[in-house]
Design a protein that fits this description.
The protein is an all-beta fold. Helices cover 0% and strands 41% of the residues. The protein contains no helices and 22 strands. Strand 13 and strand 14 form a beta hairpin. The chain is rod-shaped, with a radius of gyration of 62 Å.
Length: 283
């Protein structure tokens, strides 16, 4: 018997068609599912270590090494973001040691710095140097006699307080002394014409010199000068000149005076006929 074999589309059941128009079907040909075999049951990846772990129920499980590739080259930096808001200020630290203050003395020009750890000190006079100068003329004749006494002699009282051509800087003036207005270095000088008094037999030497506060600076007579005089030759009183200068470092309120004394034992007076004293601050 000849025929064609067909299968259905739904249950895949074999069907045999015969030439005479009849057909026959058979039971399904697939058997029941078998039990699952052994093998891998799962796997996991650890992003921290780069390791893959395979699990198995028949001893096939294993773990790989680190599967991550090498680091790639850094990319181009992105544009900087805007600055964030400032944080709150922290608490102040404790004060350290150092200078604690300072003050300026306008009278002396000195700045004094104070300290709580021994750093304190005072400067010198910081005021800009301002030159000052002074000139006073001497009294004359019997009002301006030089000392009749032996060394150190006497302080002269022959400064003419009514004849002061120059006083720039505030010098103090008295008949026997001049007051220095500020600390500094000064040039002091004087010049005078002197005339003898007395008999023609007198021979006179009357040195003059400058003192500070009625003492000799550094123990040395300053700006000392003298001349030799007789009363007359043959009928006119003898005149002479004497004068000198010195440079001294002086302090404010120092007192400047001219002193004189008699050298030898000859008698008779000597007086000033003309002259002046000048003082100039130079530094």
């Amino acid at each position: 018997m000849d025929g064609d074999i067909h299968t259905t589309q739904t249950i895949r059941t074999p069907q045999i068609d015969f030439d005479d128009g009849t057909s026959m079907t058979t039971a399904p040909l697939n058997g029941t599912n078998g039990t699952d075999g052994l093998g891998f049951t799962g796997g996991s990846y650890n992003a921290t270590t780069g390791v893959v772990t395979f699990t198995s129920n028949d001893g096939l499980g294993f773990s790989t090494g680190d599967l991550r590739g090498a680091d790639g080259a850094d990319g181009v930096d992105g544009t900087n973001g805007t600055n964030g808001a400032d944080g709150a200020d922290g608490t102040n630290g404790t004060n350290g040691l150092g200078f604690t203050g300072g003050n300026y003395n306008s009278t002396t020009g000195v700045v004094t710095f104070t300290s709580n750890d021994g750093l304190g000190f005072s400067t010198g006079d910081l005021r800009p140097f301002t030159p000052s100068y002074f000139k006073i003329n001497f009294l004359i004749d019997s009002a301006a006699r030089l000392s009749f006494n032996a060394e150190p002699g006497d302080q002269g009282s022959f400064l003419n307080t009514s004849s002061v051509p120059l006083n720039v800087g505030g010098y103090g003036v008295a008949i026997n002394q001049i007051t220095i207005p500020a600390d500094g270095v000064y040039e002091l000088s004087y010049a005078m014409i002197v005339q003898s008094e007395g008999s023609g037999a007198d021979r006179k030497v009357r040195p003059t010199y400058i003192r500070v506060n009625n003492t000799d600076p550094d123990g040395v007579q300053q700006a000392i000068s003298s001349c030799y005089l007789r009363f007359r030759y043959p009928t006119t009183p003898c005149w002479g000149t004497q004068g000198a200068s010195t440079i001294l470092s002086l302090n404010q309120n120092d007192l400047i005076s001219i002193w004189s004394y008699q050298h030898g034992s000859a008698g008779g007076h000597v007086h000033i006929n003309h002259g002046h004293l000048t003082i100039k601050r130079i530094a």
